[in-house]
Amino acid sequence: MSRGFVKEGDQEEIPLIPPRAPLPPGVANYVTREGYDALLREKEELESEKRNLPPGNEGERRRAALFIDGKLKLLLQRIASARILDVQNQSKEVVRFGAVVDFLDGKKNMRFQIVGVDEADIKQGKVAFTAPIARALIGNKEGEILDFVRGGRTQKLKILKITYPE
């Protein structure tokens, strides 16, 4: 049937699905084992949420299901493209993906773990490997001092310690 014969109130709005954390084009979707497991848990939670939608207004239920389906579609794309990097098989001497890095930023001690874009959470001390500070730290060793440009100013970062989670 033509959309011209549908009452305006009967037209459903397509739900706006928030995008996932950006991953630059052509960049592999690296994740830690923990990050991959978190993606799988998120999938289970969304599927459970969809199964347990409350009965009632059918239009509301359909919109909620469409929203969950949209989030699932984006999540499944991320899961399919995920490449788990085993941090135990890398050199422990150099900052690489998965490393926990203690460093001096000016006079302030900082600590970050370098993780995948979906795992990044600054409150937990996790930064995406695509973040400028992570890119500056990667490839350097303990004791090295490097230049990091932030806000148009060059700052010195000194790597104090590199560890890898067990």
Summed up:
This protein is α/β, with parallel strands linked by helices.
Structure, explained:
This protein is an alpha/beta fold and 166 residues long. It has two domains: 28-84; 88-163, Transcription elongation factor, GreA/GreB, C-terminal domain (Chitinase A, domain 3), CATH 3.10.50. The chain contains three helices and seven strands; from the N terminus they run βααββββαββ. It has helices at 33-51, 58-81, 132-137; strands spanning 29-31, 82-84, 100-105, 108-115, 126-128, 145-150, 153-163. The strands form two sheets. A five-stranded mixed beta sheet has the order 5-4-3-7-6. The chain has a two-stranded parallel ribbon with strand order 1-2. Strand 3 and strand 4 (108-115) form a beta hairpin. The termini are far apart. The mean pLDDT is 89.
Question: What is the topology?
Answer:
Layout: E1 29-31, H1 33-51, H2 58-81, E2 82-84, E3 100-105, E4 108-115, E5 126-128, H3 132-137, E6 145-150, E7 153-163
Parallel strand pairs: 1-2, 4-5
Antiparallel strand pairs: 3-4, 3-7, 6-7
Helix pairs in contact: 1-2
Which structural class should the secondary elements be placed in? alpha/beta
Rg of Cα set:
22 Å
Number of strands: 7
As a percent range, the share of helical residues equals 25-40%
Q: Major sheet: size, sense and barrel closure?
A: 5 strands, mixed
The number of distinct structural domains comes to 2
CATH C-level class of the largest domain:
Alpha Beta
Number of helices, counting only DSSP H or I runs of 4 residues or more? 3
The CATH superfamily of the largest domain is: Transcription elongation factor, GreA/GreB, C-terminal domain
Q: Mind telling me which CATH architecture of the largest domain this is?
A: Roll
